[in-house]
Amino acid sequence: MISHLHKLPAPPQKKSLKNIINKIKQNSASVYILSNSKKEMVVIDMDSYEKLLSELDELEEKIFDIEVIKRLSKENRDFHCDYEVRGEIANQRPVIDENDGWH
User: Fold this and answer.
1) CA separation for the pair 82, 89 (Å, rounded)
2) What is the pLDDT, as a whole number, of residue 46?
3) How far apart are CA 98 and CA 51, in angstroms?
């Protein structure tokens, strides 16, 4: 995850966005953008952003797994057949596309 978030005041007109981007890249840091001393945004480098998305995906998977375990551990759980869940399509023969990239 992101190790440090640095607070920077809103840049003066002379500073360009490029200078801020370079500072973030050089320090492998993230920056709060402030407006009237209030945090408005966070700017992070792309690697950190992609890592955050990956970690979020992993956490969502863990939450899903926990929910499945929780539901399956209930004493009075209901089971449904394929037809009850998917309806008439459950009675149709599946169409297999040999060129769909799944083989």
Assistant:
1) 9
2) 86
3) 35
